[in-house]
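Continuing the batch. This is chain 6 of the set; chains 1 through 5 are on the previous pages. Same settings as before, nothing changed between runs. Recording input and output for traceability.
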Amino acid sequence: MDRPDLELVLAVRQHGSLVMAARALRVAPSAVTKRLAALEARLGLRLFQRTTRRVSPTAEGDTLCERAVHLLRAFDEVEAELRERQAEPAGPVRLAATFGFGRLWVGPALADFQTRHPAIQVQLQLTEQLPDLAVEGFDGAIWLWNAPSERAAEWVSRRLAANQRVLVAAPGYLQQHGSPRTLQDIAHHACLVVRENGGGPGQRFDHWRLQCTGDAQVKHVPVSGPLSSNSGEMVRDWCLAGHGIMLRSLWDIAPQLASGELVRVLPDHAMPDADIHWLAPYRSQTPRRIRLLVDFLVERFRHEPWKPARRASTGKRAPPGSRQKR
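Output for chain 6:
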């Protein structure tokens, strides 16, 4: 049985007529009749019941047609992949990312990727709300946190890099108010709260979720303070000016930690589930340009290039201190 045989039985089932199937396949009706009879003889099965009004598949014919759909799709996918491998990857890639990480890290990475593959057009949309990727026409998103639970079955997810949200403060603040020694001490300090969007239903800004190294339990620590904002840039400025303690991603404040403008508070504690992920709608065949991009991003971020120690070892300058929102 070959590909034309599969196309034949599907055409006959779809049109319910040998004559109409012949027109769809652009062959003579007699050719369809002979080919179908030869196929049934070779299999020793009747695939279709013929009447004067209609040709209908038997149970065996239906089974063959269902398998034929998947086999022909697989043929098409293999051919498309082989053709794509021979050609320079080309076409648009539409992406979403959060503002801060998008500006500071994703933007430069995408520019380097596009230089490497000049026939690919990259469109990046920065947003605080994770879009409905398939509905809004996105090929993927570079996002903090994993896929939301209601999308987990519809999207694919791949971790690009580990990330921690850590407690930091300016040395001047700690000299004036003292350094917390326990999580309970946080309640007695001015906490600078980022009221970001995108955290999902039930998001609370008056609690920080913190986990101690080596401890699986996540603790909810109540926080309060006189200053809060939906701008991570603003909250970072307040923290640098010595107005309180902040919970912030390492990728965002690594330069300030390296310079000593900020120092870690309770350094054995961090917020879990803040890793950076590639999220994308599920598709049976991912275009090569998307696969190349994901592999590029994995290689770019897997060593967490924002770590101060890494920047020092490579001798590269750190990106300028990001004065952006998350």
